């Protein structure tokens, strides 16, 4: 796919994200032909979609759509619960002939069929057999819901190895979303410091402000390079490293961009805080980044191998 074709795809995705609802997101993607694009060029399809969802801070079932597509399934994939220590915890755990389910659903994930990842593979369950309720944590506007219950286990529709491969793709998608969100914070902060006056000149002319925003720009560029490298490697550990880099970019953007906004960013009227809340709620959906960092360290000690260094190019940074 050349740059002109990629720009056309990005424009179409931007329009879709701006006008869809969580309930219509998956259907609108099908109508747009996103699944065909995924089959042809998965890296471009996932990266552009996730980046634009992140930039818009959209409440959309991004990970569920990507994971289902990666598994070749039609339905709703249950995400792991927000748990520390295990990375990630299994949404489904065998209990004799039953299955104990404890996971998350994204907004708009209201199909009749649920796919629950377990240690033995992905199990298919009827959605009506489980309890669904608000999580009560994180960003309430994101619409994450908890799904739980003890039900008879269903058929295994994908192997544990297929789930592991899909999870790596999901982590690349989440990395792109976090990088897109960080880029949105950087854009808003840059526009603000151009017009905010102090001592008779824009605060964007102050060296300290420049340095903070430059650091954010570098972190975003590194995150996107890490994600591109992970797509090239198609490797579990590169995908984890990409998500860790994107987490760093998101956290740094939240800190520095908030600081250059000053007190106004605390106000409900300004809205910058909504970007921070969205980023905090996305962190940990496919494993907490601090636990993932620890896993990378343990892998290094055990195998003396680290993920390949991200390859920086002139085309790495977008918007």
From TrEMBL:
Pfam families on file: Acyl-CoA_dh_1
Keyword Flavoprotein: yes
GO molecular function per UniProt: acyl-CoA dehydrogenase activity
Domain Acyl-CoA dehydrogenase/oxidase C-terminal intervals: 165-278
UniProt cross-references to Gene3D superfamilies, sorted A to Z: Butyryl-CoA Dehydrogenase, subunit A, domain 3
InterPro entries noted in UniProt: AcylCo_DH-like_C (IPR036250), AcylCo_DH/oxidase_C (IPR009075)
Alphabetically ordered keywords of this record: FAD, Flavoprotein, Oxidoreductase
PANTHER family named among the record's database cross-references: ACYL-COA DEHYDROGENASE (PTHR43884), ACYL-COA DEHYDROGENASE FADE28 (PTHR43884:SF20)
Annotated protein name in UniProt: Unannotated protein
Source organism per UniProt: freshwater metagenome
Lineage of the species this protein comes from: unclassified sequences, metagenomes, ecological metagenomes
């Amino acid at each position: 796919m050349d740059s002109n074709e990629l720009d056309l795809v990005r424009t179409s995705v931007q329009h879709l994200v701006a006008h869809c609802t969580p309930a219509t997101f998956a259907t609108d993607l099908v109508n747009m032909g996103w699944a065909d694009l995924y089959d042809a060029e998965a890296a471009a399809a996932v990266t552009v979609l996730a980046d634009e969802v992140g930039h818009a801070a959209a409440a959309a079932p991004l990970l569920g759509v990507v994971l289902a597509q990666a598994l070749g399934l039609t339905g709703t994939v249950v995400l792991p619960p927000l748990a520390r220590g295990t990375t990630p915890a299994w949404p489904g755990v065998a209990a004799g002939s039953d299955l104990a389910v404890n996971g998350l659903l994204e907004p708009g994930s209201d199909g009749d069929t649920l796919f629950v990842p377990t240690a033995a593979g992905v199990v298919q369950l009827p959605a009506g057999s489980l309890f669904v309720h608000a999580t009560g944590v994180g960003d309430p506007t994101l619409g994450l819901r908890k799904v739980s219950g003890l039900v008879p286990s269903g058929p295994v529709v994908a192997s544990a190895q297929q789930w592991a491969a899909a999870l790596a793709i999901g982590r690349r998608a989440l990395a792109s979303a976090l990088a897109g969100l960080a880029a949105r914070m950087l854009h808003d902060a840059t526009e603000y410091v151009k017009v905010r006056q102090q001592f008779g000149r824009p605060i964007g002319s102050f060296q300290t402000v420049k340095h903070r925003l430059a650091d954010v720009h570098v972190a975003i560029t590194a995150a996107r390079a890490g994600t591109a490298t992970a797509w090239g490697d198609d490797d579990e550990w590169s995908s984890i490293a990409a998500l860790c880099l994107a987490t760093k970019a998101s956290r740094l953007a939240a800190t520095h961009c908030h600081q250059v906004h000053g007190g106004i960013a605390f106000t409900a009227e300004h809205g910058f805080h909504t970007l921070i809340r969205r980023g905090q709620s996305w962190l940990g959906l496919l494993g907490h980044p601090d636990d993932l960092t620890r896993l990378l360290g343990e892998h290094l000690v055990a195998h003396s191998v680290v993920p390949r260094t991200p390859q920086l190019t002139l085309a790495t940074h977008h918007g």
